[in-house]
Amino acid sequence: MLLHPSIYPLRGILYFVTHPTLWLRVICALIIALLFAVGSTVVFFVFTLKPQAHALDSFMPEWLAWILAVFLVLVEIFAASLLFLAIALPTVADQLFDDVVSMVTGCPAGEGSCARGCWLGCAHAGVWIMYLVVARLFLLVVTAPLHLLPIFGTILFLLLNGYLAAWALHLHWFDLRGFGFTAGKKFVRSHRQAYTSFGSVAVLLEMVPIIGMLFMFTNIVGSALWAIDMERSGIMPALAVESSEV
């Protein structure tokens, strides 16, 4: 049964926690990621929080400056974690997605462009993945000042960044099913609200200090579960023009 997209990041947590087999597949990567998360959290809070708070208190009350500085530091930690995951652990993320698909459906996930041995296809997929990563980092930087608007600004930040985040999580799915970047882009655009809903919750989870890195893995699980349910409901990139709801 296809659920509301915002539920799938939470389903990803539950599925990951209740399936120890997945832990074993990503344990090394997870330990490395958590160590990076701890280190980056300490570094950013120790060395960047105070300067940013002092810079902001020239324009607003001191208590508000400190609150906003914390949000900015969280964004910076999130950006660093995102870049680390994209550079250091991309194959682990794809393998985790494939494992979930295989466990739920009982069938192999399929072969992406790299597995099929097409170096051109592999390079092409990698280019688009990095394109979205760079786009996400750029958007994070541009939208970070939205936190200056308490509550409303943070919500808007999540909505804007969530769309690209969810799209990036499904790039591997599109590759597995043989859909090019253009077909995937049309599909995501035609289901913008659904991808924004999923991504907003995913980004919120990933911004939690330290354990946000863990949620990056569970969001991959959630995106796989969502993709499976969409396929079972007949909703795929090839049907992007005909389908209007997720």
TrEMBL record:
The chain crosses the membrane at residues 22-47, 63-89, 128-148, 155-174, 194-227. Pfam families: EI24. Keywords: Membrane, Transmembrane, Transmembrane helix. Signal peptide: none annotated. The keyword Transmembrane helix applies. The keyword tRNA processing does not apply. It is a multi-pass membrane protein. Its main location: membrane. InterPro entries: CysZ/EI24, Spore_wall_assembly. It is found in: Membrane. It comes from the Eukaryota. This is Uncharacterized protein.
